Amino acid sequence: MSNTVKVQPDLKFVKELQAVGGDSLKKCYQCATCSVVCPLSPDDNPYPRKEMVWAQWGLKDRLVNDIDIWLCHNCGTCSDLCPRGAKPGDLLSALRNMAYRNLAPLPIIGKLMSSSSGMLPLALVPGILYAIIWVLQATRLGSFLPRFEFVEHHWVAVKEGGQIAFGGLFPGDYTIDPIFMIVFLFMVWGFYAGVRNMLKAFDGQPKTFIVGRKEEPCFCSCLIDTVKYEILQHTQFNDCNDDHSDELDVKRAGGHKMLMFGFICLMVVTGVVATGHWGGWLLNTLGIHGLGGIVAAIGHTPMPLYHPIKLLAFVGAGLGVYGLIALTKRRVNLDQAKQSSSWYDWYLITLVWTIFLTGLGAFVFRILGLALLAYPVYYVHLIAVFMMLAYLPWSKLGHLVYRTVALSYAKKIGRIPMGADK
């Protein structure tokens, strides 16, 4: 006599899933075309067919603990070839969107991040903060659009002549570095809690026995392997493409890679400036003035256009804009009948465009001496960077951490092979 299994669907979960991008899941009639054509899906217990079944039945516990939603790189092949237009790729994207909202603590941030109506209160946090700083500084300096001269390692406001200096209006020692250090620590705390919740959910994942593998690799070796192959070489993105991929899909992998390297370049620039500034301060405080002066000079801003670090910043900006153009062009040209774009997609693209354009705009307007444009554009730049960092664990860009952890864990349990074994 067979045992009876009672299924208790979570209808509220199904409605939430449909609201964040999985609105077409009810069209699926389980032909399994999606799992067959997916270039990344493992042969054993493949995705996304099983996710479509679980979603239709509202099996929330299975879906929220499913590691496979992070293995998908959203190439759209499954959705393109689905005979019913059920958009299984959109479903997996929707599941990741729900994960961004719920993995990290403070779910109110995740809820606000999930719709355009929540952007205003999130933007008001840095907006009001830096508006207050701007007003206080304008009161002290006597102008909302001050000009400065660099005197004895400090920016001094002048009434005539001088130059535009963002560090004069928004002093880095008091209004940039301390605030963004707190933001960075807040982001790290959010990711720490989110990753801990993710790994706890993965504990129930079955392990795959791999013939010839002597022992299970440690998580650190899997993490290094993921950084080497999936991140730096973008092997998973490249595997998504085949002879039938169109030009925009092929450029998507390159665009994503160029944007990543652009951010890496800009991170190096920021690190050098911060290290030079604070390292020079520390050495001078310790009485090592000769070396302290050299180190401080390395991080002094604004840098001349020929400075190697400034040139690296230009390279990073160029790579970032190139990548953004490729990704935006593909997103705009998607066939909405087969693959949709959610609020999370457009928010991320818009935010990154804002960061790059305001960064370049502030630089250009400063060089041209247009204070009326330079300072407001830099103000918007600060808001955009604040929003990207502070809310990173709850945004689509959080996949930088969550997907990396998931891929590493999947290698550890044998769900996917190590990079060199493919």
Structural key phrases:
two-stranded antiparallel sheet; mainly alpha; 2 domains; 2 strands; 422 residues; Fumarate Reductase Iron-sulfur Protein, Chain B, domain 2; 2% strand
Describe this structure in words.
The chain folds into two domains: 11-102, Alpha-helical ferredoxin (Fumarate Reductase Iron-sulfur Protein, Chain B, domain 2, Orthogonal Bundle); 113-421, no CATH class. The chain contains 19 helices and two strands. The longest helix has 39 residues, at 247-285. Strands 1-2 form a two-stranded antiparallel ribbon. A hairpin with a 2-residue loop joins strand 1 and strand 2. It starts with 10 loop residues before the first helix and ends in a 10-residue tail after the last helix. The mean pLDDT is 90. By secondary structure, it is mostly helical. It has helices spanning 11-19, 33-37, 49-57, 60-64, 68-71, 77-81, 88-102, 107-113, 119-141, 166-169, 172-202, 219-231, 235-240, 247-285, 289-298, 308-332, 343-368, 371-390, 399-412; strands at residues 147-151, 154-158. It is elongated, with a radius of gyration of 25 Å.
